[in-house]
Design a protein that fits this description.
This protein has ten helices and nine strands. By secondary structure, it is of the alpha/beta class.
Length: about 240
């Protein structure tokens, strides 16, 4: 973690996101030391027919972020007979703890989970009626789960609750993570059009670089992705 923080500082990244609860303390220490931000944690639980469950590390991690401008990325796994009622109850409990510590929660769509699409995330977020609950858009999961859907319409429809976006190099029509999660300078998905649309709908949040499962060494693919991101941002007309 110490080396990663130093290298990301040299590369010019603003910080890191989707940090797991069990390593959060180390990330906060090392990224604070170099002046970079921990943008979010990635935590969750499992929803069933009449209950839900999550690890105590989730609450601990939320409390560790008190006073920081950070987001709780919350995934909701699918248990036996999972229901929206239990999903909403789970979200409310996490949102209450997050609010006590001055944090926002975003529902993270993940393939084969109870919240699988951004539409699912919007539905559950609205049903929770919590002012600190929004949704995330993750390009790789969107392309995997909803390959025929219009990403432009999806983003526009989600905009009132859209507080986090992550992208990556991806091939339109890709079916596995090796084609859907690549460095930002490769892939057939139009990143410039993507960033331009975010600007046009008035999105003002952060845009993260999804790196899960990339086999290329970080010291190689992270600078490539940052350079590509800046290039696409400039071409999109954003300042």
């Amino acid at each position: 973690v110490e080396e990663g923080a130093r290298e990301m500082k040299k590369m010019g990244y603003a910080g890191v996101g989707s940090v797991h609860a069990n390593v959060l303390e180390a990330f906060l220490k090392e990224f604070d030391a170099v002046g970079l931000k921990v943008f979010s944690i990635y935590v969750g639980g499992k929803v069933g027919a009449d209950s839900y469950a999550y690890d105590a590390s989730v609450t601990k991690a939320i409390r560790m972020l008190k006073g920081r401008d950070a987001i709780v990325e919350l995934y909701l796994q699918k248990g036996k007979g999972s229901t929206d009622a239990q999903a909403v109850a789970f979200v409310k409990e996490i949102a209450e703890e997050a609010e006590k510590n001055g944090l926002r929660v975003i529902l993270y769509p993940h393939s084969n989970f109870h919240v699988e699409t951004i539409g699912d995330a919007v539905r559950i977020a609205k049903a929770s009626e919590c002012g600190n609950v929004g949704v995330a858009f993750n390009l790789c999961h969107f392309l995997k789960i909803e390959p025929e859907s219009d990403w432009r319409k999806t983003l526009k429809d989600a905009k009132p609750l859209l507080w986090s976006v992550s992208t990556c190099g991806a091939d339109v029509g890709g079916t596995n993570w090796s084609t859907l999660i690549q460095p930002l300078d490769v892939g057939s998905f139009d990143q410039t059009a993507f960033l331009k649309h975010l600007r046009e709908i008035g999105y003002t949040g952060d845009v993260g670089n999804q790196c899960y499962g990339i086999k290329i060494p970080s010291k190689e693919h992270l600078p490539r992705s940052l350079a590509a991101g800046k290039k696409h941002l400039a071409a999109s007309g954003a300042e």
